[in-house]
Amino acid sequence: MHILLGLSWGEWASITTIIVFMAGMVSLLFKYIVFGSFQDDIKDLNRNFKTLNDNLREIRISITELDKRLDEHDRRLDRQHERLKDLRDKIRGGSY
Fold this sequence. Notes:
Strand content: under 5%
Radius of gyration: 39 Å
Helix content: over 70%
Shape: rod-shaped
Distance between the termini: 120 Å
Number of strands: 2
Number of helices: 2
Low-confidence stretches: none
Mean pLDDT: 89
Strand order of the largest sheet: 1-2
Order of helices and strands: EEHH
């Protein structure tokens, strides 16, 4: 029979099986007890990030639309300014 450090191969296999089983149990405990409470928080955080991204997308679209409106108002204001200047020049004969 083969013996290593005073124990037979069967005894080593039993010790290894016990160690692997205990490591598995500790892993399960950590997974469900320690990290289980974080899973709901992580899911909630992911939902919040998705909502935030959706809101930012809507804000970007709104800003783009507002920029277009502002450009149009700026052009209209420039036209009005030119019209007022022309009217002033016609009324005053081109001088102040």
